[in-house]
Fold Haloacid dehalogenase.
Amino acid sequence: MNIKLICIDMDGTLLMDQQRVAQVDQEAIKYANDKGVHVAITTGRVYNCAKLYAETIGLKTPIIASNGAFIGGTNGEQIYCNPLNLSDIKQFMELTQEEGLLSYLTANFGIISTLELPDTNIYKVLNQTLPDQQKIRLEVISTLDELAPFDGEVLKGVCVGQNADQLSRIKAKLKESCPHLEVVSSWNNNFEVMRKGSSKGEAVKQLAEYLKVSPDQVMCIGDSENDLSMLKVAGIAVAMGNATPEVKEVADYITADNKNGGVSQAIYEYIK
């Protein structure tokens, strides 16, 4: 199969430890680029964060961010944007906070929250080493009434908790009460909400069309529930060795895990 576009998830896939890309994976991505293959970061993270990684490893292909709610060029060009409505944002925040769960909102620039994020939050961790002009913006508001200035910018809501049963219950409740929202998990301790039509799968289809690549020429690589939609539309679906069982079930190929060059193994397997 003649692969022309590779869409790669970040956390649990491209990144070894939520921060670093293995040298072998960087070399494989460069190899694919040199063969004329587009390589796109396809992530639940905010655009400004994903853009930093794209620049670091030399990617020029547009970025899929916020689980597909935004597609943007590495030069800042907006290709697709599907923000949440303020009413849905408030419903999500109120429901999760009533349950005592940490919830926050994401925009291309960074995070909006009603509470200071814990120091372990990945964006806070990254900001410790980033120069001021590259830091991920972290906005803390006092009440949900202060969301109005961000209307049209909020792309995703994130809920984090350690009680898996509680998360599953609230996740199911949102799916039932808000069928116009996409509700998926990107990690075993969270779930995320986007406006309907925002998924990695839909974004991959749009990006492929934008690049004039047919669906059977697309390879997608991922590990979590939020990657399922893109794996299902790919010509070649690759699951990481550390992927969930559900992801492995839909895969055409299971590669090594994210700490042992899984991305590079998949690239060399299919890009000759």
